[in-house]
Amino acid sequence: MEVQNVLHMTPGEGKTSYAMNSEYQKRAIIKAKPIVEEAITDLYCKTVPRSMAIADLGCSSGPNTLLVISEIVEAISLMCQKLGHRSPELQVYLNDLPGNDFNTIFKSIPFFVEKHRTDKENEFGPCFMSGIPGSFYERLFPAETLDFVHSSNSLHYLSQVPHGIENNKGNIYIAATSPPNVPIAYFTQFQMDFTLFLSLRSAELVPGGRMVITILGRRNIDPSSKEHCDSWELLAQSLRDMVYQGLVDEAKLDSFNLPLYSPCLEEVKAVIEEQGSFHLNLLEAFDAEGDTNYDYEKEVEFDDFIKAVSRTVRAVTESMLVSHFGEEILEELFDKYAKYVGQYIGKEKNKYVNLIMSMTKKG
Ligand SMILES: C[S@@+](CC[C@H](N)C(=O)[O-])C[C@H]1O[C@@H](n2cnc3c(N)ncnc32)[C@H](O)[C@@H]1O
């Protein structure tokens, strides 16, 4: 799978789109807000800049894209208000892979800018926004031009499916039944990708520039721990059922693996220290609140709830599944997936762990 050409979240604003099924990722953005505010405040107070260049990497499309930018803009406005300053000019870059639905974002930008201008007057400076299609595993910006880099729920995507895992048959990620070379290959790919990412961003950030990143991760050092693998295991189980029913070719399933890796805190810390360009101010794990656990007190029908969980996973995996298996399997696959989610809830507490890190580029 050529990740760069294939991967995109489900576009548009329809029922199965990422825009309509990204509540879980939104909670992670909200949870990370105080850490983003701290980084912005520190950056502003140290430099009192006349202009600031900000990039959100892996921005996707939908309400979360501009929610992140709102958080950043509001943190700057608040500082300016406190200090009695005029807001700096803001250059905001929204990056994602070329297949991303940039058009939907662009349509919402005039409303976003107008709203902030009306709400904040002097504390909202000119704001220039642009889309940057390309992989964050390549250079995206000229040297030393960025002040702040943000990325949420995106850096657990690898640049490619790790090599040498053809023996991971019947699985689509690291599973309890994966041969021992599989977790090693995934971790090696993560190490290479994350090291490259840090080197590229270090070239693009000004000295003292800040970076806040949230990714799907784990607390447990065992990469096949239940913490984060269950979603992928339920998807693999649904695909195995379809093989059993003759709806999916077994060889097709055997040759499919997801280009993702959810690292633990120790793995992230080791790569940052080894790469050496950044001072790590903070690294911690958190559970995104109100995750995919069914709340029996809520007035949401159980059936609607499991379908919503299924659509959340569909919105982030659909492009990869369609490219490998074809579009015709989708409805049946995610009906099965919803049923497995239904059986799983109640038996297990489904945990999604996020890692958040805040860094400063060394001077
Ligand atoms: C789950 S979405 C998260 C979107 C948004 N940041 C949020 O929090 O809702 C992950 C995004 O990362 C993007 N992505 C994955 N790999 C990428 C890469 N190498 N370069 C740029 N974007 C990438 C995907 O296309 C997708 O839009």
TrEMBL record:
GO molecular function: metal ion binding; methyltransferase activity
Protein name per UniProt: Uncharacterized protein
Alphabetic keyword roster: Magnesium, Metal-binding
Keyword Electron transport: no
Species, as recorded: Aquilegia coerulea
InterPro entries linked to this entry: MeTrfase_7, MeTrfase_capping, SAM-dependent_MTases_sf
